[in-house]
Design brief:
Rossmann fold, six-stranded parallel beta sheet, 17 helices
Amino acid sequence: MFSINKKKIVFCCIEGTTGYTCNPKYIAEELIRQKADYELVWLVNDTSKKFPKEIKVVRNTLWNRAYQLTTARIWIDNSRKQLEARKRKGQVYIQTWHAKLGFKPTCLDRGAAFSKIAYLVSKHDSDMIDYVLSNSKWYDDTLSTGMIYNGPTLRTGSPRCDILVNRTEADILRVRNQFGLEKDAKIIMYAPTFRGGSQSIKRTINVDDTSLDYDVLINALEKRFGGKWYVFLRLHPQLVARNMLSNDKNERLIDVSKVDDMYEILAGCDAFITDYSSAAFDAAVMKIPVFIYADDYESYEKERGSLLWNMKKLPFPMMQNNEELKDKIQAFDDEVYQMELEQLFAKTEMVEDGMASKNVISIIQKERFRKTEAKVLSERYDYLIVWGVARHEFCERYNPFMYKLDYLIDKNEKCVGEIYGGMEVKKLIK
């Protein structure tokens, strides 16, 4: 019915909830810069967001996803494909993910906190992936449990880190001009992470819930480093989508949460602070001070599962209250910090050389003309994914619970024997 267009690449970020951002953006940017002969398509929920003219922007609906994914040679995504997605023979799926070195356990590393339905979604996606982008041996070693993935990795580095590694004085000045700041202004970005999916803790980090005192933070930075400091607040994209923005009126606090690309702004920053965001490791490639403010460390680890690092032994000074925040920033030793960063990068065998996007493009060019068949989920799904999407649209509209379980049934309406919540799926469907 629909043939595969070998020149078509379909991009998506965080299930379409964000705009032109993260690793897929920087791959697309390099394709545009090289004037590569491809049709670039981006699936996004809000089509009013800004994209380059070279990219075809498509509203991220079930039907649009079905057609665009069905006819593309290459898929590029930084989060999971949902259950209706089925790869065809001859298609290539490159998973960039949105974190490399990170604090938070994912998938099987979460233990009992990792639900059955989450496992099925993750396994479904991982079974379709042809390549996962990596920036370190440490990340490679986490994939079998952290992503339920045992396929090929590409040690390219993270495309979104290219702008950080290659940042220039022009990048620094651009950010200050963008927000009307003095040319010599100093900026720290504060990026608390997302607390969604919690079963036992209802706290979702609207930044106004945190105990971090911005005045204490700014005063400590000015005493230690000098200059006039501003705080750029960057909330998680899923919170921005819910309009969970800050109500704080501090004149030195600037909410940059609605800017699609965090990394264009981060490239102009002089320091970074977070709780559990993997962006701490990304910011560190600029060799700027990175701090951890984790006022709920014990409770978060108890709910989320054991963190992947002992955060108190990383180069990043860790604070759990404002008194510690003040003391550790003022005592910051840059010489020791830089030495410990080098040791961390060497230990993890991290590769961030500013060439990640170019490295990925070389793989894309090879895959475009490769004649061998790409991995598919199963022969059973060697029909157009349109059928699956049509069924899911019906289920989503008329039976949300069935929508969650429909993928367990093959196209001949036969139960495949999966168990959910201790009950046979066949019984649940009935």
